[in-house]
Amino acid sequence: MIETEGLGKVFVDQKKNRVVAVDGVTFRVNEGEIFGLLGVNGAGKTTTLRMLSTILQPTAGRARVCGHDVVTDGAKARANIGFLSTSTALYGRASGLEVLRYFGSLYGLSGAKLNERLDYVIEKLALHEFKDRLCDKLSTGQKQRVSIARTILHDPPVLFFDEPTAGLDVVTSQTVLEFIEETRKAGKAVVFSTHIMPEAERLCDRVAIIHGGKICAEGTIEELKSQANSESFEKAFLHHVGYQREVVL
Amino acid sequence: MSPLKLVYLKEMREMLRDRRILMSSFVLPIFVMYMMTQLFAFIGNTLGNEKNTAIYVTRSQSLEPLVASLKAVPKNDVTVVASLDEGKKALEEGKAKVLLELPELDPATAKQVTIKAYFNSDSNTSSLALRKVETWAQASNQAALNVALKSVNLPPETAEPVKITPEDQAKTKGAGDSILVSLLPYMLILFVFSGGLSIASDLVAGEKERGTLETLLISPVERIQIALGKFFSLLSFSLATALVSIGALLILGLTNPMTKKVMFPDSLGITPVTLISLVLVVLSMAAFFASIQLWASIQAKNMREAQTLLGLMNVVVIIPAAFSQLLGLTGISKSFWVSFAPVLNGAVSLRETMLGNFNPVGTVLTIAWNLALAGFALWLSVRMFRSETVLAKS
Asked: Which of B4, B52, B101, B370 is the most exposed, having the fewest neighbouring CB atoms within 10 Å of its CB?
């Protein structure tokens, strides 16, 4: 469903310096699988997901989503993607229902099919109470539920979640995590980017630890713990990213 | 429904829900038009009720007949003062608009009377009073000359061997000096530009800042459709603002008799063909403005940067638009190069057409050049939309 091969991205900053954000990332995600991309801030997780969702162009390697190359066949790749992060916002002066209808139409849904999908996501995410309210007037949790509805409205086979719980309260985070668990049951291929270890342990079938733009370890949670010879996944993560305590008190 | 139409309708709906945008695009122009028509009505009333001209003269027994003749001129308010100092004080205080220092002389021997006229060039009313006194002196001299010529049996024409009789050949007599013809091209340009100004920063830079652009770009819609949808919404808003402003000007101006008299000339050179050309010129300018505003919004990393860029553009647009008001004083309006000067070309075309000097070649060149520039700016915008830099934030 999702394949990357030597995927890389180099940015040129304002001083014309080359900044390697992603370097030779290779992985594969199958349907019904949640693949975790774990890394500290600036490790290259978001850049990888942005390349997979075609809004950034890779400078090396290639990637395919549902068989469509993200560079040469971007529109078809995008049609199969649902993308959710805390940075993807909603239109404040539109109601939740209007936002959903708008994106449904942009993804090619219309008529009875669109109404059917709208009914499904409204029911599924319990949006009845506030679907006609302007998004600016919604609480953070309500906004995130509308965002989730927008992500799955066109029933994409591939879902990308980029730190979807960042800045959310415990209850809203729980809603998001439960939703991601359900997508696995629905047979979706999911890439889940996070730096919160308990979330990765709870959700991911396999994870890749990304550091300095490179994948430094890949496997199941248990495999990574075993490789690091650690009972704690957090410690295993630190081991894989080469963390060393610099200050001894 | 095509994605372009979806993007267009969504943008229009969102903008129409924004009170800030509604205020700046529609309410403010109507208010400005109301204020302007009221101001012109006030000026018209003031000019219509011409006040008496306060003329102070120093006492002179020998020139009393001259003073009497000055008093006989309608709307002259002549005051005789005892001394020059008293007169100068009245001039300084603004009570007198002009002060005439009359000498004492013997009428039997004097060949010419020299009268010193004190006035204040800083004051328009004082300068006007001086002109009135000069006109009176000219008429008095002409009358004296006629009497002298008659006494030697010569006709009055002897003193005027060359006589000029003006014959106005303008297609729209008096329209060239009308406030409407001077102001309308400037205001149209201003309102078409400012109509888009209020929403341009929000369209792309605002979406970048709020994070909604990313969501939109992840959809399978072609980037050109997104860019065009936003461009057409910008264009619609610009035209709507211009239409509301001009509509308000016409309604407010024509319903007030004084404003109608002051602002609107008796005749304009507008025929169905020239009306279509006016609309097309405005449309081409609106397309040009919308395309550069969209480009600026894409170029900016956030709303603030977009507003700064658009503010600078506003200044660049205002200068040629303001210069267009002075075109009547220059001979450039028929120059070939004007058709290729953005903004100025539209202003010239609008003004000349309203004056009945419709120039089909110049108008077609103006429209074509504006559309070519709009196409180029739009191409740049689409290119940026297709590039990942469109998402660059500060």
From this structure: B52
Q: Of the residues B137, B159, B181, which one is the last residue of a structural domain?
A: B159
The rounded radius of gyration (Å) of the Cα atoms in chain A is: 19
Tell me, yes or no, whether B20 and B64 share the same domain: no
Closest CA to B100 of B137, B58, B68, B53: B58
Question: Which chain B residues in 188-247 lie under 8 Å from chain A, judged by CB atoms?
Answer: 210-212, 214-222
Tally helices (H) and strands (E) across chain B.
15, 4
- Give this prediction's pTM: 0.81
Same domain for B335 and B194: yes
- Nearest-by-Cβ selection for B218 from A81, A98, A105: A81
Residue of B nearest to A53 (CA): B218
Tell me how far apart the alpha carbons of residues A46 and B232 are, in angstroms, rounded to a whole number.
Answer: 33
pLDDT > 80? residue B126? yes
Is A233 domain-assigned?
no
Under an 8 A CB cutoff, do A93 and B217 touch?
A: no
Q: Give the closest-approach CA distance of B6 to chain A in angstroms.
A: 7
- Tell me the chain A residues in contact with residue B10 when contact means C-beta distances shorter than 8 Å: 91, 94, 102
* Closest CA–CA distance from residue B211 to any residue of chain A (Å): 5
Region B119-127: mean pLDDT is 88
Cβ of B220 within 8 Å of Cβ of A75? The answer is yes
Are the CB atoms for A227 and A217 separated by under 8 Å? yes
How much is the ipTM here? 0.86
Can you give the CATH number for the domain in which B66 is found? 3.40.190
Residue B119 has pLDDT above 80, yes or no: yes
- B167 located within any domain: no
- pLDDT-derived band at B107, boundaries 50, 70, 90: low
The values of phi and psi at residue A191, to 5°, are -110, 125
Question: Which structural domain, as residue segments, surrounds residue B217?
Answer: 3-33+172-391
Residue A140 pLDDT > 80, yes or no?
A: yes
A chain contacts of residue B216, beta-carbon cutoff 8 Å: 106
Asked, for residue A43, whether it belongs to a domain, the answer is yes
Total residues found in chain A within this entry: 249
A69 CB neighbour count, 10 Å cutoff? 15
Residue B314 within any structural domain of the chain: yes
What pLDDT, in 10s, does the model give residues B62-102? Answer: 888 888 888 888 888 999 998 999 999 999 998 999 999 98
Return the number of other C-beta atoms located less than 10 Å from residue B79's C-beta: 14
User: Given a cut of 70, is residue B329 above it in pLDDT?
Assistant: no
Please give the residue range of the domain that contains residue A33.
2-214
Q: Is the CB of B1 less than 8 angstroms away from the CB of A105?
A: yes
